[in-house]
Amino acid sequence: MSPLPEFAFAVNRNPAVAVGLPIALGIISNYASAKIRSKRTGQAAKATCPPHPAYSYIWMAASGLLGYAAHLTTRSFDAAVTHQSTEDASNALVLYYATLGLQLLWEPLFIGGNKKEAALVNSVALLGTAITMAIKMNDLATNPVSTNWFTIPYCVWIGYTTYLNASVVLSAKKQH
To answer: Where are the transmembrane segments (predicted)?
Structure first.
């Protein structure tokens, strides 16, 4: 028996919904973060975007790739013939949702709340969870294509954002 409700599998059975869900949630998180920062700083919400416009687009693309990996993992769950393969796919999806949740927390912490250290802790946890998820998904039989094509770019992106977050925290500590 999976620890996830049926709905968690159902949204990933349709590839468009599986890809669109993390992108839509990311856009909502971005909007909420901009509003929080706007109230905190008095700047217009438009001014709260990352310094380079490509950042948001890369983040959305990486999230979409992760969503497609979740779709393939759900296909593996549905095609599983043994209890162990069902459990493995279910565990990979639990890690996917944990990754998605941590991802959605990062932006409100870093941009919205200006809590760079808390965002760094979150980012390190996100990176560890994403790598563990990628390994678990890779172990599944996900025909016709490996989930590595979708999870590795995501993990690399999270690694890069963790590096950037750590740089901001270290730079702030040097200034004080």
So the answer is: 15-33, 54-73, 93-111, 118-137, 149-170
Tell me which amino acid residue 5 is: P
- Please report, for residues 72, 137, 142, 148, the alpha-carbon distance to residue 145 in angstroms, rounded to integers and kept in the order given: 8, 12, 6, 9
Question: Which two tokens mark 40?
Answer: 């905190």
User: What's this model's pTM, rounded to 2 decimal places?
Assistant: 0.89
**Cβ atoms 101, 23 nearer than 8 A:** no
Domain ranges of the chain: 13-175
165 class by beta-carbon count within 10 Å (0-12 exposed, 13-18 middle, 19+ buried): buried
Q: What share of the chain is helix, strand, coil (3-state, %, to 5)?
A: 85, 0, 15
Tens-place pLDDT, residues 92-131: 999 999 999 999 999 888 877 789 999 999 999 999 999 9
Task: For residue 81, report the phi and psi dihedrals to the nearest 5 degrees.
Answer: -110, -15
* Contacts made by residues 102-107, CB under 8 angstroms, sequence distance 24+: 102/126, 102/129, 103/22, 103/26, 103/63, 103/158, 104/25, 104/26, 104/29, 106/161, 107/26, 107/29, 107/30, 107/33
Q: Write the DSSP symbol of residue 19.
A: H
Read off the tokens for 131. Answer: 């790598």
8 Å CB contact between 19 and 74: no
